[in-house]
Amino acid sequence: MATFEELVAEGDAVPLDGWDFSWFEGRATEERPSWGYARLIGQRSSTVDSMLDVQTGGGEVLATIPSAPATLAATESWPPNLAVARRNLEPLGGKVYEAPDEGPLPFPDASFELVVSRLPTVTIWPEIARVLRPGGSYLSQQVGAGTMRELTDFMMGPQPVSQIRSTDRAREEAEAAGLTVVDLRHESLRAEFFDVGAVVHFLRKVLWTVPGFTVEGYRDRLRVMHEHIAEHGSFVAHSQRFLIEARREA
Q1: Are 139 and 65 in contact (CB under 8 A)?
Q2: Which processes are annotated in GO (biological process) (predicted)?
Q3: Inter-axis angle of helices 4-13 and 219-232, nearest 10
């Protein structure tokens, strides 16, 4: 059985490029939302002639669509992800553009019939509304307020739950940008970590869970986490997800 130091070192060495979570197989699990985001965008992609994926990561989810529209584009801000996304989306004829998460989007007004985004760090609603064609839709799966709070509190002590990622705020900001919210769903999903190495990799990859996380800065709490998992078999937390669809009226 691996030691605490071995597990931590392993989790600290995993590359962070892309959004492929296959490394966690057998080491951590997370329930998936019932709406099936990848399936939804796959269905929608066959009904439009232009589509944009904002903050595509490595393009892993967008690459699963069964057929691509005539115009397929994606944006990404992190340079290591750009090469991964371009490689993943090339078979679909997709073009990947470097763009900051906070905008602006490098496209003319009314460029896309469908804009999608999975777990964006921030939603730039005015830019989304600007690049949507009249009658077009924005479909996004997002991180909800208080996601993984059990893990945050374990590592940092009790923290206030920000409402920046709440569904109410998402609706307000979409409507303020001139869009009509036609679907809004929220689910709380069980996540389970089976070794401290998985916790380390998760905290390095999902930066907002413990802002400023480093192994050295949190080694004492990681050791307590290791002991908790040894005693209880796992560490359980809950991710919060919501699906929002907002339409630009024709």
Answers
A1: no
A2: methylation
A3: 110
Q: How far apart are CA 168 and CA 102, in angstroms?
A: 20
CA dist 78 to 17, 20, 98, 111, Å?
Answer: 9, 15, 8, 23
Q: What is the pLDDT along the chain (250 residues), one digit of tens a residue?
A: 799 999 999 999 999 876 667 899 999 999 999 999 999 999 999 999 999 999 999 999 999 999 999 999 999 999 999 999 999 999 999 999 999 999 999 999 999 999 999 999 999 999 999 999 999 999 999 999 999 999 999 999 999 999 999 999 999 999 999 999 999 999 999 999 999 999 999 999 999 999 999 999 999 999 999 999 999 999 999 999 999 999 999 8
Burial class of 109 by CB neighbour count within 10 A (0 to 12, 13 to 18, 19+): exposed
In 3D space, the residue among 12, 141, 32, 122 whose CA is nearest the CA of residue 75 turns out to be: 122
Nearest residue to 76 (alpha-carbon basis) of 67, 68, 85: 85
| Interatomic CA distance for residues 218 and 8, integer angstroms | 11
Q: Please report which residue ranges of 72-218 form alpha helices under DSSP H.
A: 79-89, 125-131, 149-156, 167-176, 196-205
Fold exhibited by the domain 4-247:
Rossmann fold (3.40.50)
- Residue 127, phi then psi, degrees to nearest 5: -70, -40
Q: Supply the DSSP symbol for 22.
A: G
- The residue ranges of every structural domain in the chain are 4-247
pTM: 0.90
**Contact at 8 Å (CB) between 141 and 33?**
yes
